[in-house]
Amino acid sequence: MTTSLKSLTSRFCRDESGSATIEFVLQFSILITILAASVDLSNINIRHAMLERSVEIAVRDIRLNTGDVPSFEAVRTAICEEAGILQECESNLMLEMKQVDPTNFAPLSGVPDCINAREEPRPVRQFNPGQDNDLMLLRVCFKYNPIFPATPLAAAMDIDDEGYAMMVVQSAFVQEPR
């Protein structure tokens, strides 16, 4: 009995059939993980670039439209129209705007005010459109679902309970005089 077990074990150790399959499975899983993370990262970069661009276009409109005080909904709609790639933009975009004193600068609070489509709508933390020659800070927070939430890239992001990650863009501008 012992000799047959030894011969079976030695024969198993010498047999190399199937070793390519094991190597393929290990390398393929690493390759697919890297590929999924790169697709997710490129999607994040595209969304962030479009969000930054649309915020800057909206800020330019606010800055140059003297005498016109924009509302929260008008600014959010302008940003969402420019950033056509953002899914459910109207329900996942939150704005904060604050007038600051340039001589005694106080930034926006550390934690951005974000909301996702599944949460109940809540009032805006602060949105003050400002007057002539006011220095204004605008922070836009957009929540989105990562394409591949199981990749190491998604694990490194701050994801809420519903699976949404957040993207924050800030801008500063001065209201033009009338």
Summarize it.
This protein is of the alpha+beta class.
Task: Walk me through the structure.
It is a single chain. With 178 residues, this protein is of the alpha+beta class. It has one domain (19-174). It has helices spanning 2-14, 19-64, 72-82, 89-92, 152-156, and strands at residues 93-100, 135-144, 165-174. A 3-stranded antiparallel beta sheet has the order 1-2-3. It is rod-shaped. The model has no long low-confidence stretch (mean pLDDT 82).
Helical residues, percent: 40-55%
Query: How big is the Rg?
Result: 26 Å
Number of E strands: 3
SSE arrangement, N to C = HHHHEEHE
> Which percent range describes the beta-strand content?
15-25%
Can you give the mean pLDDT?
Answer: 82
Overall shape: rod-shaped
Q: List unreliable stretches of 5+ residues.
A: none
**Secondary-structure-derived class:** alpha+beta
Keywords:
178 residues, alpha+beta, three-stranded antiparallel β-sheet
Write the layout of secondary structure elements.
Blueprint: H1 2-14, H2 19-64, H3 72-82, H4 89-92, E1 93-100, E2 135-144, H5 152-156, E3 165-174
Antiparallel strand pairs: 1-2, 2-3
